[in-house]
Backbone:
């Protein structure tokens, strides 16, 4: 019998991610690898260490990287050019991060459906 994969995401990070999503009534997908998506495009992703990747339009990526002194998001060894790494301190600040979640979902919503 195959074993079921279990998430190793720290409980506090998962809780912060879910709290953020609830502010905009955004459905969380993925049991082991939590993410959000629209029209077949991912908008957010929480990796197994609890680091959040957030997809932003090109003009917002550079501003975000500078403002929060962070990097592009890396997933499975691949740098995602339109995803930023959300610093832990910002993930814990739902009020401040909420506006970026809104920008992300508006951007993804306007991408051509897959």
Residues:
């Amino acid at each position: 019998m195959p074993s079921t994969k279990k998430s190793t995401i720290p409980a506090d990070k998962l809780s912060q991610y879910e709290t953020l999503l609830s502010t905009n009534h955004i459905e969380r997908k993925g049991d082991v690898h939590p993410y959000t998506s629209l029209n077949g495009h991912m908008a957010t992703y929480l990796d197994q260490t609890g680091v959040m990747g957030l997809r932003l339009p090109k003009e917002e990526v550079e501003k975000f990287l500078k403002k929060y002194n962070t990097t592009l998001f890396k997933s499975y060894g691949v740098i995602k050019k339109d995803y930023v790494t959300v610093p832990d301190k910002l993930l814990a600040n739902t009020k401040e991060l909420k506006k970026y979640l809104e920008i992300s979902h508006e951007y993804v919503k306007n991408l051509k459906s897959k």
About this structure: Helices lie at 11-23, 58-68, 88-91, 94-109. The two ends are 34 Å apart (CA to CA). The CA atoms of residues 9 and 48 lie 5 Å apart. The chain is about 40% helix and 25% strand.
